[in-house]
Amino acid sequence: MSDGRDDGRGDGPVGLHPRWPGALQAEFDSAYMPALDRFLAAEQAAGVAVYPPPHERFRALELTPLDAVRVVILGQDPYHKAGQAHGLSFSVRPGIRIPPSLVNIYKELEADLGIPRASHGALDAWAEQGVLLLNTVLTVRAGAAASHRGRGWERFTDGVIRLTAARAEPTVFLLWGAQAKAKEAFVQDVAQGGRHRVLTAAHPSPLSAYAGFFGSRPFSQANAFLAEHGRGTIDWALPPIVG
C-alpha cells in the first residue's frame, strides 16, 4: 500500500500490531485496496497534506491488538488540522489544544464517573488498556473534514469491527455519531441474544452533544458490563504527561 502500509518485510503494515495482520489479510488483499492506494498516492503527488502521517494511520491497531480489545470507541474522521491526528480516534498529541469533541467527552466522563478533566488530549493510556480508538475513515485531507469518505476506508474498518465482534470475549462497542452507528449492523447486542454490549449515542461534537451524548453514561456502563463478564474495568483517568 503506497500510504506506508508495506514495511518491506511482507509481514503487514507499518505500525500494525503483529496480532492483527493475519486476521486482516483478506482486507489487504481485497479489490478495493488498490483503488484506495491510488487515491492516497494521487493526494501525495498533488502535494496535498493528509492526516495522520502514513506511519500513524494504523496506530489504533498497533496499540490495541485484537486479542486485547475490551472496548471499541468508534469515531468518524481524523482531525483535519495540522498536528492533531495521530491515529487514535478523538485523541490529539501532547501539547495540542484539546478539541471541542474531546472536551465534551471529558465533560461526560466527569459527570458519569466523577473523573476530573485531563489537562491534555492524548488517549494512549486508554488504548493500552484495550480500548480500540478507531475511526470509520483513517485519513483526511488537511482542512477538509470528510474528504476521504467513500474511498475504501469504510470497508476496511467494517472488517476490523467484524473481526472484533467475532471474538468470544464480551466486548463493549461505543458508537458515537451516524457514521459510527452504521457499524452496529456488524455487532449483536446482548439484548438481541449476542455476547457484546452496543451503546450508541450522538457524536460528542458541540453540534450534537446535547442531542444524546451528554447523559449517555458510556464509561460507567462499559465498566459495569466488563466487570460482570470477568474482563476487569478500564481506568478512564488519564495520567499526566511527563516531560
Structural features, described:
Strands 3-2-5-6 form a four-stranded parallel beta sheet. A two-stranded antiparallel ribbon has the order 1-4. It has eight helices and six strands. It is globular and about 50 Å long. Helix 1 runs antiparallel to helix 6. The termini are far apart. With 243 residues, it is an alpha/beta fold. Strand 5, helix 7 and strand 6 form a beta-alpha-beta unit.
Extract low-pLDDT stretches: 1-14
Please trace the helix and strand order, writing H or E for each element. Answer: HHEHEHHEEHEHEH
C-alpha Rg, in Å? 17 Å
Q: Helix proportion of residues, in percent?
A: 25-40%
For the largest sheet, list the strands in their spatial order. 3-2-5-6
Overall average residue pLDDT: 91
Number of strands: 6
How far is the N terminus from the C terminus? 35 Å
- SS-based class: alpha/beta
How would a textbook summarize the main sheet?
A: 4 strands, parallel
What fraction of the residues are assigned to beta strands by DSSP?
A: 5-15%
Query: Which outline best applies?
Result: globular
What is the overall number of helices?
8
Task: List descriptors.
243 residues; 30% helix; four-stranded parallel sheet; disordered N terminus; alpha/beta; two-stranded antiparallel ribbon
Q: Helices, strands, pairings?
A:
Blueprint (H helix, E strand, L loop, with lengths): L20 H8 L3 H14 L4 E2 L7 H5 L7 E5 L24 H14 L10 H4 L3 E5 L4 E2 L11 H14 L5 E5 L1 H4 L15 E5 L16 H11 L15
Parallel strand pairs: 2-3, 2-5, 5-6
Antiparallel strand pairs: 1-4
